[in-house]
Every structure is written in structure tokens, then in C-alpha cells.
Amino acid sequence: MAFNDIKKLKEILELGIKNSSNVFVVGHNNPDFDSIGSSIGLARLVKEYNKDVYIIVDDLKLNLQSGIVTVMDSVKDNYTFIKKKDIDKLVSDTSLLLVTDVNKKSMISVGDMLDRFGDIVVIDHHTENEDSIITPYKFVDLSVSSASEVVTRILNSSKIKYDANVANALLAGIELDTKRFRYNTSPTTHDAAEKLQINGADDDDISDLFLEEFDDYCRISNLIVNGTLIYKYSDTLGVSFTLNRNEPKKIYRVEDCAKSAVKMLSFKKIDAAFSLGYVSNNEIHISARGNGRVDVSKVMMELGGGGNETCAGCKVESEDIFEVEKKLMDSVKIGVDPSEKLYKTPKLLRKKQVKR
Ligand SMILES: [Mn+2]
Predict the structure, then answer these.
(1) 165-211 pLDDT, tens per residue?
(2) 6-210 in CATH: which number?
(3) Which one of 63, 179, 208, 307 has the fewest beta carbons within 10 angstroms of its own beta carbon?
């Protein structure tokens, strides 16, 4: 169903934009640099055809990474960011929706209202599954570095001029998904990056985007320190559970949970790390990371989420984070190889003493 011919994609985009009344661009929820960079690049393409274009970012600003906010702010004078609730008065059956860096309905904010748009074009580099958007205009190429690379190539081959802020946004997308040119690159990736630099992308600006904010570091460290319990499930299997036990209702970013779980997994004798936090008033996010001894996707599936063996997550609606943690602690056993000799009740190995 999907195709991977970039020339065909370019033709579809040109025709689709020309024939539309207005255009919406959406990336995945909890946007990263590739999703936001490719969205901005696509919005630049749309503007070439003098059509109104809206970039949908539905996440709370509070939940966005600081670098994403910096990128959005850098282009906000020329590009319009809207929330899902603003779409109603703008959308019609001649509207075009461009979906970038994602192809699954459940991962975009407008997944439940796709029938409101006239046509949908998907531009992505991730595998498809039964949740993938159904449209004849689906470009999916697993071999390209990033959605930003694809969009850069289209802008360049159409000889469209773009400013340094757009170039920075696109280059940040490529750099994120290639881990700064260490993985997944091809000659076309480097060619795209070179052209972005010629158009004003600045390596120092991009390095700044990748730097951690001190506040983020403090928040994540505070989360770990104020609430990590380590349990032994067997003689050798250690599992950590992180949540803010001082202020259990505190709102975190999905990113905070993910980063704290990754951090916990970097410690000796931790085989799986789970990090829980409220991301809105009654919605709890759980990030799960493992080294393979516990299949964390099985654990997350038990709570309605998913992922893969070493990296998974889920969202749970609940007023009681401790109750969710209890259920999670029980579910861990499901992810353990049945040959492993587990204790009847896991032993609390280390309880962080909270000092204020
Ligand atoms: Mn990507």
C-alpha cells in the first residue's frame, strides 16, 4: 500500500496542496526534533503555493521538551501552530492533512477525526501495522534517516528557498534521528545536511538544542531521589520503581519519565526500570526500560500499553498512582522468563530515605 518513491511523493504533495483549500500538518504526539522539523519544512512547502497552513501541536507546552519550544518559537512569526480544538472552524472536505514522522492513528492528536479532512498524505520512516492510517498517499521508507531528510530533499529539488530557522529545524531533525550522523546516514542524508547548512543552518544553534536544560536535569534527578524503590524479584534480578513519593500528584513530561527510567537502568544490578508520573490531572504515564531479562513490553501490555522488549510504555487513567504502582509491581512477573526462580514476594532492596 505504501510507496517509497520520493519523486512520486513530491508530485502528490504538489498536486494535493494545489487542489486543497487549506493544509494541516501533524507529527506524532510528544513531538521530537524530527517530527517538528519536518512539520515546519512541510509548512514551508505549502506556503510556496500560497495556501493557509496550520501545524497541529496538541501537547501542553509544559509537556514539551525545551528544545522543541525553542524551535517552535524561532519560526512562530511565519508559521501558525494550533491545537486540536482550533481545527473545527478551519477544516473542510477540501482540506489536506499532511502526517509526518508517524503513520499510526493512535500516535497523532487528530487520529479520531481523520474523516474530516479531504485527503491525507503520510510521510514517514517507521514500520506500519494494523493501526496505520489508510490512504493511497502513504510514503514510508524505512531506509531514510528521518522525515526531515525527505522534506529537505523535496524542498531542495523544488528549488524552494527557506530561511535559517527552517534550515535549523530540519537539520535538528536529521541530527536527532541519526544520533548526530552516527547511524542511518546515506550520501543523500549528508547532501541534505550540506544544503541546509548552505541555507543558514548553524551547528552551534543545533548543539544548543541538544544540550540539556539544568531545570530538566534537576526535575529528573529529584524524581529519582524522591521516590525510587528497588526490589529484588530473584537472587539476581533487580527492578526499580520511580515516582515522586513526596508529591505524587506533581505533573511530569513523558520525557521526564523516560529519562529517569533510562538513568535507573544505567545502574548496576538494575535489570528493569519503571518510572511513573502524572502527565495531566488523572492520567499517569509509565516509562519502562529493560536490559532484556524482563520483557518490559509484556509488562506494559498488561496495563494496556506496548513497546518492545527493552523499551515500552503506557498511559493509565487513575486518581491513585500508588495503586497503579502496586499493579505494576505484580505485573513485572509476567515479563520474566518462566525459567527464572522468583521469590514469592519480591524483596525491598533499597528504599530511598527522603530527607527534606
Ligand atoms: Mn523520525
Answers:
(1) 999 999 999 999 998 999 899 999 999 999 999 999 999 999 999 88
(2) 3.90.1640.10
(3) 179
**pLDDT 10s digits, 120-147:** 999 999 999 899 999 999 999 999 999 9
* pLDDT tens figures, 143-158: 999 999 999 999 999 9
Rounded to the nearest angstrom, the distance between the alpha carbon of 278 and the centre of ligand 1 is 26
Distance from the alpha carbon of residue 199 to the mean position of ligand 1, in angstroms: 22
Where, residue-wise, is CATH 3.10.310.30 in the chain?
Answer: 214-351
CA 28 – ligand 1 centroid, Å: 9
Contacts of 3-10 with CB under 8 Å at 24 or more apart are 3/138, 3/139, 3/140, 4/139, 4/140, 4/141, 4/143, 5/139, 6/139, 6/141, 6/150, 6/153, 6/154, 8/139, 9/121, 9/123, 9/139, 9/150, 9/154, 10/154, 10/157, 10/158
Quote the ligand 1 centre to 122 CA distance (angstroms): 13
Q: What is the architecture, at CATH level 2, of domain 214-351?
A: Roll (3.10)
**Centroid of ligand 1 to alpha carbon of 98 (angstroms):** 15
CATH 3.90.1640.10 residue spans of the chain: 6-210
Distance 237 CA to ligand 1 centre (A): 34
CA of 148 relative to ligand 1 center, distance in Å: 7
Which segments of 101-177 are extended strands (E)? 119-124, 138-140
- Lowest-confidence range among 27-31, 183-187, 281-285, 347-351? 347-351
How far is ligand 1, taken at its centre, from the CA of residue 176, in Å? 8
